[in-house]
Write a structure and sequence with these properties.
The chain has 221 residues and is an alpha+beta fold. Helices cover 28% and strands 18% of the residues. The protein has a three-stranded mixed sheet with strand order 2-1-6, with no helix packed on it. Strand 8 and strand 9 form a beta hairpin.
């Protein structure tokens, strides 16, 4: 009797063990199936173009560096502008040889100012000896480098000489030419005979000895 009870208990224990094994196996299979299904779902989403959202950018990533932005910015080509032309040193010089009442043959500049020569200069070689305050009272006729415009003056007689300050003074038959600061209007010749050395110049470069002030004697030719 006792032996049969032991056999029955052993069989019952075996059945319980077998049943537990079956339950554990079933749960494992279900879990594996669920994992596989989830994995297949993620793979399918990726194949359909789904992408997981990126982590939000930090403040350093969101704000580009100013130097990098400047380098990456497109360079706009400046609109082509015409090249600026250098301003000339002064107006183009004009020499006008003409005959005027009382004085006779004279040379004027383009503004009608009477031109003079200075007996203390030399024509060959051409040299000006009027500097400093002298050049303030008797402004030299300077050129901007262009050929003077001539009317009634022989081009063969016109040239230039370099002054001590490097400027170029117009000459006529070798004589440097000047205006007179006290000639207040075109056509005046208040500088005629001043100091016995300043004279209105003629188109040939010679002195004009007309209308000399009292006390001034015309020098020898």
């Amino acid at each position: 009797m006792i032996q049969r009870n032991r056999v029955a208990i052993a069989v019952a224990a075996g059945l319980v063990a077998v049943l537990a094994l079956v339950v554990w196996t079933s749960n494992t299979t279900v879990l594996r199936g669920t994992t596989v299904a989830q994995t297949e779902l993620v793979d399918a989403g990726a194949q359909d173009g789904y992408e997981a959202p990126l982590a939000p950018a930090t403040s350093e990533e969101a704000v580009p560096d100013e130097e990098d932005a400047a380098e990456d910015a497109p360079v706009e080509e400046a609109a082509s502008a015409p090249e600026a032309q250098a301003a000339p040193a002064g107006p183009q010089i004009t020499l006008v040889g003409k005959s005027v009442p009382r004085m006779g043959d004279v040379v004027q500049d383009g503004d009608g100012r009477t031109l003079y020569r200075f007996d203390k200069d030399t024509p060959d070689p051409a040299k000006s000896n009027c500097e400093g305050q002298c050049a303030v009272t008797w402004p030299p006729l300077l050129t901007n480098g262009d050929e003077p415009q001539l009317r009634g003056v022989d081009p063969e007689l016109v040239s230039t000489v370099e002054r001590a300050d490097g400027s170029e003074q117009v000459t006529l038959d070798g004589w440097p030419l000047y205006t007179y600061a006290k000639d207040e209007a075109p056509g005046q010749w208040k500088g005629q005979g001043v100091g016995g050395t300043w004279f209105v110049v003629q188109p040939n470069g010679k002195r004009n000895v007309e209308c000399l002030p009292p006390g001034v004697t015309a020098p020898a030719a």
